[in-house]
Automatic annotation (TrEMBL), chain A:
Protein name, as recorded: R-phenyllactate dehydratase subunit alpha
UniProt keyword list: Iron, Iron-sulfur, Lyase, Metal-binding
Cofactor(s) needed for function: [4Fe-4S] cluster
Source species: Moorella mulderi DSM 14980
Single GO molecular function: iron-sulfur cluster binding
Broad enzyme group: lyase
EC code: 4.2.1.-
Database matches in InterPro entries: FldB/FldC_alpha/beta
Annotated gene: fldB
UniProtKB/TrEMBL annotation, chain B:
InterPro entries in alphabetical order: FldB/FldC_alpha/beta (IPR010327)
Name of the protein described by the UniProt record: R-phenyllactate dehydratase beta subunit
Pfam families reported in the protein's UniProt record: HGD-D
Lineage, top ranks: Bacteria, Bacillati, Bacillota, Clostridia, Neomoorellales
Entry keywords, A to Z: Iron, Iron-sulfur, Lyase, Metal-binding
Length: 423, 346
């Protein structure tokens, strides 16, 4: 029984909304997870789950001021202020597992948030209006990479009558842009502290930046280990850790989980425990994956031995932060994102990943409604073709399972695998 | 005659283009489907952006010395990546536009404008003196002021202008291939203003809103019995900006304030209160009876802006109709049924 089945079983029906606000529910959940500890193939995944439950509990039980953020906002600021970060986009992925997506989509569409927009945001919107999300004390959002996030989060701030802070991120990476972003980050930090009545603690703030650096170092170690042949972790398993990239940096927990993961990978490498019995091809996965059961990874990794050896979302694109210049270095981090600015930047980063991880092919999961990731794919396709690297653009939706067509997906994946074999 | 510089988004400072001896030429796309652009940009991306790329691929544009692409939204960002390789002629210059209005944003935008001026000056092989830029600022303000005056007179009921005429004149004015043509267009519209226009008085006075409006929409609404008296769109009233105090000193700071402080676009997400105040002013000044919101397909800003408009209309007790469109001019039948039903409410 997976974790979502477990939760659905114990928190079914009308009790669900109330259960989110009950400390007993979280205690019970942690006990249930702990009872199954040995069934987790990666202890890092087990630790991540326990930490995530704690974080979710902190938000729902309002153990501190809850701040909603989008997944590209530098969360070091929120951890540094001692706030409780909550990412509605990540919550949307969890909502799929909890079986509330259908209801939430209905609510959003009934409220005129049309099906043409990103389903992560539609789902988060519906979950919020249906009363599934913990109310925020403030909302922060960065403008880069996604047009839907600022709109959707600004609407949420308006709905809850709480302050909304936008981090406006330009596309250049020069000194003027860094100054512009750094000043905004500073202003947002002190405005949040003021609005939420949180005392400024420089030491705590610097600790968050140091924790971020530690997490970055451990993630780099994980990524180095993943470059080796044969792969020791399947993409299906590694995808579960992406949550930390989106909401965990600045927390001690992220550093601990990556440390554990690096140690386990190291050990498996020494023991030559392979991800799959026979590694026939190595793949790079771009964007996210579906958060509902599909046969995609089973078909690729278990059946065909084509291992996803790296995910674009795990790419460490930024330099270490400087705790002595927190806002300036966080601005540098934000502006370093390879998806920001012209497409050639993302292409360059992807080609570097292709080389570093010695991949034989690239799969892009084209999440419906994500203009950022999908719009310029033709340029990427051309660049990969120039390098004779097989590429598959797999269209689908990360959270709306009604858009999943198993037959068509299998056909496309099988075609791609044949192409890989032919190369 | 100067060379043409293409531009898209209304946050593009045409004054800089003019001051350097170029002629700003707005790219408004074309009617019809975009099969060739669809091969370079995905299906669920802004149809206006794809329509512009289609005109470039089909070589339907006049010769352009360059194009300024304001990276104002995700679709424009991708157009900026795609344009130089698959579509555009001449140089492609990109401009970052802040999504907020405060002194930090104004300062940053002024720096970007100065950089753009440098890049355009290099393209035109000439230097841009501040005095020339001020002249261009004054010249554009004079023209915009004329248009604003015309629309204000319409609001006061002193003249009767159809929305379709206003949109057509504005489109013509923005895409005049010569400066003389633009002046002529303005003079022509002034002459038309004197002519006898169809009298729409007594019809429901409507505000049309959206990111960018298809050219045919106001005419169709008027054909079906409505009267478009205000067009809140990138190619409508927003392009006319708002009067600001003439500064002395840095012309780039003035321009940054002028553009960021104009009627806010749905993309200005940190500025939503101002957008609501702007709507409230329009409804009062133009005695609006109802609102038709055109949601451009796949425009994230418009999708959520419509939600805000709905809340606004609910509070004000204004009837609101949502029309979805893809900028191809192909939704006429569906629109007609919906608009006619909407107009029956009045």
């Amino acid at each position: 029984m997976d974790i979502y089945q477990l939760i659905r079983f114990h928190l079914a029906g009308p009790l669900r909304r109330r259960a989110f606000k009950s400390p007993w529910a979280y205690r019970l959940l942690k006990q249930l997870v702990a009872a199954q500890k040995k069934r987790y193939s990666w202890q890092a995944a087990y630790e991540l789950l326990l930490n995530t439950i704690d974080q979710v509990a902190a938000a729902y039980l309002q153990q501190g001021p809850v701040v909603w953020h989008n997944v590209f906002f530098p969360t070091e600021i929120l951890y540094g202020l001692g706030l409780v970060p909550f990412a509605p986009e990540a919550a949307a992925a969890v909502a799929v597992g909890l079986g509330v997506a259908e209801e939430a989509f209905r609510v959003a569409e009934g409220d005129w948030v049309s099906g043409e927009s990103c389903s992560f945001h539609r789902l988060a919107y519906g979950c919020d209006r249906a009363g599934y999300l913990p109310p925020p004390g403030a909302v922060v959002c960065s403008s880069h990479l996604c047009d839907a996030a600022p709109q959707s989060l600004a609407a949420a701030a308006g709905y809850h009558h709480v302050p909304f802070y936008l981090l406006d991120v330009p596309h250049r990476q020069d000194a003027a842009a860094i100054n512009y972003v750094a000043r905004q980050l500073k202003s947002i930090t002190f405005s949040l502290a003021d609005a939420l009545g949180v005392p400024w603690d420089q030491e705590r703030f610097q600790e968050a930046l140091l924790a971020s650096n530690t997490a970055r170092e451990h993630l780099l170690a994980v990524n180095r280990l993943r470059r080796q042949r044969p792969a020791c972790i399947r993409g299906d398993e590694a995808h579960g850790f992406i949550y930390l990239m989106l909401a965990g940096f600045g927390s001690e927990a992220a550093a601990a989980v990556y440390r554990q993961l690096a140690a386990e990978l190291e050990q498996r490498w020494r023991e030559q425990r392979r991800a799959v019995p026979e590694e026939r091809a190595r793949l790079l996965w771009l964007h996210l994956r579906p958060y509902y059961p599909t046969e995609i990874f089973n078909l690729l990794e278990q059946e065909a031995g084509a291992v996803v050896v790296f995910e674009e979302m795990h790419h460490v694109y930024w330099e270490p932060l400087d705790p002595a210049r927190p806002f300036y270095s966080l601005a540098g981090k934000v502006l370093s994102h390879h998806g920001l600015g012209c497409m050639s930047r993302r292409i360059e980063a992807i080609l570097a990943m292709v080389d570093a991880y010695q991949v034989d092919g690239v799969i892009h999961f084209a999440h419906w409604g994500c203009r950022q990731s999908t719009a310029g794919l033709r340029l990427l396709q051309d660049a990969l073709r120039d390098r004779e690297i097989p590429f598959l653009n797999l269209e689908g939706d990360c959270v709306d399972k009604s858009k999943y067509a198993p037959g068509a997906t299998r056909t496309r994946l099988e075609g791609f695998l044949e192409m890989l074999r032919a190369v | 005659m100067g060379a043409l510089i293409g531009w898209f988004c209304h946050y593009t400072p045409v004054e800089i283009i003019t001051a350097l001896g170029f002629i700003p030429y707005r790219l408004l796309g074309r009617e019809g489907n975009t099969p060739r652009a669809d091969t370079y940009l995905v299906g669920n991306l802004c149809p206006y952006v794809k329509s512009c790329l289609e005109t470039a691929i089909r070589q339907e544009l006049p010769p352009l010395a360059g194009t300024v692409i304001a990276r104002s939204c995700n679709a424009m960002i991708h157009l900026a990546s795609t344009w130089p390789r698959y579509g555009g002629q001449g140089a492609t210059l990109v401009l970052d536009v802040p999504r907020r209005l405060d002194e930090e944003a104004v300062l940053y935008y002024s720096q970007n404008l100065r950089r753009l001026a440098g890049e355009l000056a290099w393209l035109g092989e000439r230097q841009l003196e501040d005095s020339l830029l001020w002249q261009a600022i004054d010249a554009w303000e004079e023209q915009r002021s004329y248009w604003r005056g015309l629309l204000a007179a319409r609001a006061r009921g002193e003249i009767c202008l159809s929305g379709s005429d206003v949109m057509a004149w504005l489109d013509g004015w923005q895409t005049c291939a010569t400066a003389a043509g633009r002046d002529k267009g303005q003079a022509g519209s002034a002459a038309i203003e004197q002519q006898s226009r169809p009298d729409f008085r007594g019809r429901p006075r409507l505000m049309l809103a959206g990111s960018i409006l298809p050219a045919e929409l106001p005419a169709l609404i008027e054909e079906w019995g409505g009267w478009s008296v205000f067009e809140d769109a990138c190619n409508g009233r927003r392009f006319l900006l708002a009067e600001v105090a003439r500064e002395t000193g840095d012309p780039y700071l003035h321009l940054a304030r002028l553009y960021l402080g104009g009627p806010p676009c749905p993309r200005m997400v940190a500025d939503q209160t101002r957008r609501q105040q702007y709507w409230a002013g329009v409804v009062d000044d133009y005695q609006i009876d109802g609102v038709i919101y055109h949601v451009m397909k796949f425009c994230d800003a418009a999708i959520y802006d419509f939600r805000a408009m709905k809340d606004f209309c609910d509070r004000r007790g204004l009837p609101l109709l949502r029309l979805d469109g893809d900028y191809t001019g192909g939704a006429r039948g569906q629109w007609q049924t919906r608009v006619e039903a909407f107009l029956e409410m009045f």
